[in-house]
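Course assignment 3, question 2. Fill in each field.
Student: A.L.
Task: Predict the tertiary structure for the chain below.
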Amino acid sequence: VLTFSGPVDGLNVQASSGSVEAILTNGAEATVELTGVENATCLALEVSGASLRADAKINVRCLVGDVRTDGVVNIFDLVNVRNALNQPVTTANYRADVSADGNINIFDLVAIRNHLNTAAKCTPPTPETMVLIPAGEFQMGDTRNEGESRERPVHVVYVDDFYMERYEVTNQQYADALNWALNQGNLITVINGVVYQADSGTSFPYCITNPTTPESHITWNGRVFGVLVGKDNHPIVQVSWYGAAAFCNWRSEMELRTLCYNLSTWECDFNANGYRLPTEAEWERAARGGAAGWRFPWGNTIQHTRANYYSSTSYSYDTSPTRSYHPLWNAGPHPWTSPVGFFDGSLRYKEDFNWPVSASSYQTVSGANGYGLHDMAGNPREWCNDWYSGSYYSISPHSNPRGPTSGSNRVARGGSWASYAIRCRVAYRDYFGAGTRSSSIGFRCAAGS
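Answer field:
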């Protein structure tokens, strides 16, 4: 049963397995009848229709006896059916009618017994926007001996293969996730324009909205989250480390992946197949793009045609012919971010991106690295999973380092639209409190392989 915000008509549903036998609509509800769906799988439904504002993709666990819809059949499902025995089937208890005969009876208990300890095998395909970073060793740290002491000693690190998002999380992606979290009823709350974890008071701020601060591109009208016009494909900023970790969980749950973060302890389960923030070592491995010894993801010099940063004559490797903030995005209220993936080597036009200055076109040079990752230098900094320690490199393990076990700050990497070239180097380390919301910090997702 699919429930919409308004009346639907002319609905079309495509299923990843089995056959759609009928679609029965009644006002804002549509009942989709399917046959031939294999048990213990994830069923993907693609929903479209003229009366919908946009097409939708819905993932459903199909598991006989999973009354509680937690992806596994166990003793708790038996208890749910037992408590509903011989009651009329209603919209509140219909899942207890496991045998679908219109009654809740002994046959439903038998059906659950026959499927006890069955789990739904739900490993969704990896999105096309995720890039596989191969396992291997690399030299981590300031290999050119030109940075700060916290970037040394240079040490050899091995990381397992993992996935990294090609682009930073955008305002539209974050707003969509906020609306999903809001509709769950118990995940977030908004206090004076700031989004917090529900029932946490003001202990765990996630993000701040506009106009509470003009530096946020996320809007809130008391009912729904949105994005300022023209900023949908810009990276989310004014988001805390908590808000980045929470987004990873929301995205995982929407795709039926196993959650990585415990939002009470903020510990990360690296064995889960959900989304998470990259470790600091994973971030640097990915940023280097498979090359050894480069300052930046693409080479040893930096220019405005490749990245959104603050150019200065102070550094010989900053060879940009234009100086100060990026010449396309340096007007209007902060943040002066650019759309994700903007620097791809193509000729860009004002009519497509509506940048705030008068130039009608701009020739970019590809800022992607050897793994095809964009904006690993400049635009916003990016949260990493690790706690920060300035001396961690001297005690870092060789294999899959994950940072100190505790601390007062979290790592951020990559420099920002307001950063000098020295802070955009792949070796540069930055840090902020986990609750910090800044116009220069965003994030991208990672996932285990």
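Instructor remarks: The chain has six helices and 23 strands. The radius of gyration is 24 Å.
Grade: pending
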